[in-house]
Specification:
4-stranded antiparallel beta sheet; alpha+beta; Alpha-Beta Plaits; single chain; 4 helices; 8 strands
């Protein structure tokens, strides 16, 4: 069974960064599985999951470290854990006027109910009519067994009213379970 490596990479954004990383992984027989990458404030940042034969893992790590001379930085962790699909999956979407503390307040409610944030994307955009700064977020959540979705919905709606944001909560069934 191949090892799974979770890579975090960051560096000043420029064309060819993904190509450099993917060429290095492929040259060592690694299989690029899952990815989340983005440009943030001029920096390229990403996390990715790579499967590789155990006997090739050390050589891959050495080669990735050599890319650091070209301005990339890596954090590399081995994972023995397979992706879990336990619990009910929900999609949370939020939009409202930007202000400090929105993520803190929402995540506090989720943590209190033992809801896992599986994935979070957010961005600050300009409102199309008002021109004001708007905060938009999407989060994939996994509910613990026994938590009624209506309890979560009630807690989030009360907070949404307090924060003056629009919020929706919908079923989010994965298309293909990851193993």
């Amino acid at each position: 069974m191949p090892l799974q490596l979770v890579l975090t990479v960051i560096g000043r954004d420029r064309p060819g960064l993904v190509s450099m990383v993917s060429e290095t992984i492929a040259a060592h027989g690694g299989n690029w599985l899952d990815t989340r990458m983005a440009r943030l404030a001029g920096q390229f940042a990403g996390i990715l999951l790579v499967a590789i034969a155990e006997e090739k893992a050390d050589a891959l790590v050495v080669s990735l470290r050599q890319l650091e001379a070209q301005g990339l930085r890596f954090i590399i962790e081995q994972s023995d854990e397979q992706t879990s699909t336990d619990g009910r999956a929900l999609l949370l979407e939020l939009v409202g006027l930007d202000r400090p503390g929105i993520v803190r307040d929402i995540s506090r409610v989720l943590a209190a109910l033992n809801v896992n944030i599986y994935e979070l994307e957010s961005e600050r955009v300009v409102g199309s009519f008002s021109g004001e700064a708007m905060f938009k977020a999407k989060a994939r959540l996994t509910l613990p067994d026994g938590l009624d979705v209506e309890i979560l919905r009630g807690s989030l709606e009360a907070l949404a009213h307090e924060l003056m944001v629009d919020l929706s909560l919908e079923d989010n069934r994965p298309l293909i379970p990851c193993d």
